[in-house]
């Protein structure tokens, strides 16, 4: 039997509806896929652009030289590196505290570390100790001093002391170690590392940290330029940005903070030295240029990425798309800080 005209019309209508639905769904899927295709294209572009290339820097069996290694973060990094099979050398000023640190590392890991004593401000003394230690594979410039005070009230000798230790001391260490590090990297064919301990106060200026922040911000410029100079020698630079950390000197430093500094910086979460050491060593082993140590630090690293080197295309993706939001958050923080300062001064005037 031949189909009726009604049946043919119904079948044609159903086919038209089905075709329209399929076309609509295809169009919708295409429209929905455009952002994903665009994002994928950006991710591919970032994977091509990021420099230097990803790297793995081995620790086991290699010479790790750590300044400020007798206490705090430096001691914690030394202990972790020794536990991972590194040949560890630590440098500090106090011979007695160095021996205590060696005993603590031996007790924790069963490994002996080499001890070297020098003031990092003394370039000749540093050069002698570095030469005596032998070629270095991983240099950790962890030394640092911190004396908070408003610049108006701070003695210039204290300012010079912080700059000399935090900045010039780092120059002295790198200058002394670099020639042999280059030769060592060429001889072994393995990547080497220079890591520099900065601070979150080296990413954002805070009331009462004028001199300290200046000495730590300078390390960023040192690190960025140095990475350009040593990348051809397979040496990789890392800048570590810890927050307030529970170290032997932290309690005393906290007592000296101006009242406003405590109000503004009091919300910043402190960390255990061993937790900072874990983050630092992890960043060093991957050659990460900016190494944050907590969530707040990660937000700061995105907000201040600027023209810094970036190995990870995923992190580059976050930086590219998170920059605008982090700028907005930064403005909110600045509004809060300036409001706090304004209210504090108004309260003082009314007393």
TrEMBL record:
Coiled-coil annotated residue ranges, if any: none
EC number: 1.1.1.102
Catalytic reaction list: sphinganine + NADP(+) = 3-oxosphinganine + NADPH + H(+)
GO molecular function: 3-dehydrosphinganine reductase activity; nucleotide binding
GO biological process, one term: 3-keto-sphinganine metabolic process
Record bears the keyword Transmembrane helix: yes
Domain of life: Eukaryota
Pfam family, one: adh_short
Matches recorded under Gene3D superfamilies: NAD(P)-binding Rossmann-like Domain
Protein name: 3-dehydrosphinganine reductase
């Amino acid at each position: 039997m031949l189909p009726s005209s009604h049946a043919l019309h119904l079948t044609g209508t159903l086919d038209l509806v089905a075709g329209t639905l399929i076309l609509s769904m295809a169009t919708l899927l295409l429209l929905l896929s455009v952002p994903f295709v665009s994002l994928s294209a950006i991710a591919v572009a970032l994977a091509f652009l990021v420099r230097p290339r990803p790297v793995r820097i081995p620790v086991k069996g290699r010479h790790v030289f750590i300044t400020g290694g007798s206490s705090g973060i430096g001691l914690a990094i030394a202990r972790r590196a020794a536990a991972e099979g590194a040949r560890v050398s630590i440098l500090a000023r106090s011979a007695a505290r160095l021996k205590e640190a060696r005993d603590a590392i031996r007790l924790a890991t069963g490994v002996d570390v080499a001890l070297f004593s020098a003031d990092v401000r003394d370039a000749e003394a540093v050069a002698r100790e570095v030469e005596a230690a032998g070629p270095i594979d991983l240099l950790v410039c962890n030394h640092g001093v911190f004396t908070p005070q408003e610049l108006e009230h701070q003695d210039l000798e204290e300012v010079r002391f912080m700059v000399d230790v935090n900045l010039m001391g780092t120059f002295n260490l790198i200058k002394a170690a670099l020639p042999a590090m280059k030769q060592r990297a060429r001889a072994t064919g393995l990547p080497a590392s220079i890591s520099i301990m900065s601070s979150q106060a080296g990413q954002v200026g805070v009331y009462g940290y004028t001199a300290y922040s200046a000495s730590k911000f300078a390390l960023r410029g040192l690190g960025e330029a140095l990475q350009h100079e040593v990348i051809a020698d397979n040496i990789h630079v890392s800048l570590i940005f810890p927050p307030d950390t529970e170290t032997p000197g932290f309690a005393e430093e906290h007592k000296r903070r101006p009242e406003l500094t405590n109000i503004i910086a009091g919300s910043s979460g402190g960390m255990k030295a061993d937790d900072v050491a874990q983050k630092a060593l992890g960043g060093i082993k991957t050659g990460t240029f900016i190494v944050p140590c907590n969530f707040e630090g990660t937000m700061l690293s995105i907000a201040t990425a600027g023209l810094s080197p970036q190995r990870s295309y995923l992190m580059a993706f976050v930086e590219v798309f998170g920059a605008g939001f982090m700028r907005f958050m930064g403005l909110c923080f600045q509004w809060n800080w300036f409001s706090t300062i304004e209210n504090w001064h108004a309260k003082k005037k009314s007393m």
